[in-house]
Amino acid sequence: RDEDGIYYALDLGATTCQVLRIQLGGRGSKIINHKVELHQIPQELASSTSEELFDFISLTLKEFVEREENGIDQAPDERKELGFTFSFPIRQLSISSGVLIKWTKGFAIEDVVGKDVSRCLEEAMSRNGLNMRVGALVNDTVGTLALGHYYDKDTVAAVIIGTGTNACYVERSDALIKSQGLLTNSGGMVVNMEWGNFWSAHLPKTSYDIALDEESPNRNEQGFEKMISGMYLGEIVRRVLHRIAEESDIFGESAYHLSVPFILRTPLMAAMHEDDSPNLREVGRILEEQFQMPGISLKARMLVVRVCDIVTRRAARLTAAGIIGILKKIGRDGISGVASGRAKGKPKRSVVAIERGLYTNYSIFREYMNEAITDILGEEIAQNVVLRVAEDGSGIGAALLIATYSSKR
Ligand code: GLC
């Protein structure tokens, strides 16, 4: 069902929610234009009730739709289809429905766990007088993959590195034990890996990781995410600096702010890490203005930058290792194909769509990640691996997917 027209999408991430309007042409195959609006999610909503959360996002969407359609004649009973990007682990029941398995990224609204989140949203939309139904329910990685694929047919996987981290990739249907009997036209199926929950005894866990996990609302879960993503990097750095402050006098008397959990947000950490002003003036300014730590010596400022560097480098290298794990699984790492006798000859080009702040706004993170991909694969093979930003892919991709797959109820 490839249809031209206007599609809306709602993208619930963690700290933000995006509402989008996309116009498709060329029998639903071309994005003619799109508009994206970003809204902060009030922090208290993350631990409120199902009704409060879904009322908030449906009202945000309603106001957006009303602004967009102001003056445009609409058939009053025309029910629009919505792409709903819901970036938490769900058990997918159909293209447009799925049950929340558990919350991640600091959310804890117990009465949603076990419920179909599309229903919750549809009920809230109808409570608030918005005539829409969910046409596609997707994870942010899947939306990003869809937009990545729209740009470049060699896209095989998508990775999100923002507040949380996750990846999805295209797997051969017959390699999937869980979906036996489910046939697809293409022979492939997108797997949302939820890699944030990956864990292995080989991962280099420190006492800071252990303490962070123990004090988190989701203990023993999302171990990979807690080493990599934006919600946690600043907090790991804060824990290290706090310990240094306790065990030395390098930060002087005024380091008590460092004892406040989550006070060092990752964007500020990145700003200190990327400080190229003479004598790390910017680091000094941030420490003074944000943490009331005036007059920190150059030596101590250099130490702060060094800690940021170690924490970020580890995160970037782990992300790169995750990507190469996927390429290896699908025989695109240039090594496994040859070893198994498959795909000999010229390695194929593999594009990985990538999204969110840690990659797009943090250049040192990006550099370390690219460096690690080359370190692991070798320069020759790494040349065939293209990381490509799919901006706003999580939401736009969801709208592309409704245009292609949903069916009217
Ligand atoms: C968390 C969620 C996952 C999402 C990722 C990135 O790991 O569980 O569904 O894709 O964050 O937003």
Give an overview in words.
- The radius of gyration is 23 Å and the shape is globular.
- By secondary structure, it is of the alpha/beta class.
- The protein is built from 14 helices and twelve strands.
- The strands form three sheets. It has a five-stranded mixed beta sheet with strand order 3-2-1-4-7, sandwiched between helices. It has a five-stranded mixed beta sheet with strand order 10-9-8-11-12, sandwiched between helices.
- Helix 3 (140-151) packs across helix 14 and helix 7 (266-273) crosses helix 9.
- The protein folds into two domains: 6-138, 2-Layer Sandwich (Nucleotidyltransferase, domain 5), CATH 3.30.420.40; 140-390, Hexokinase, domain 1, CATH 3.40.367.
- Bound molecules: alpha-D-glucopyranose.
Q: For the largest sheet, list the strands in their spatial order.
A: 3-2-1-4-7
Characterize the overall form: globular
Low-pLDDT segments, ≥5 res: 338-342
How many helical stretches?
14
State the gist of this model:
With 409 residues, this protein is of the alpha/beta class.
Salient structural properties:
single chain; 409 residues; alpha/beta; Nucleotidyltransferase, domain 5; Hexokinase, domain 1; 5-stranded mixed β-sheet; 14 helices; 12 strands; 41% helix; binds alpha-D-glucopyranose; transferase; ATP binding; ATPase_NBD; Hexokinase_BS
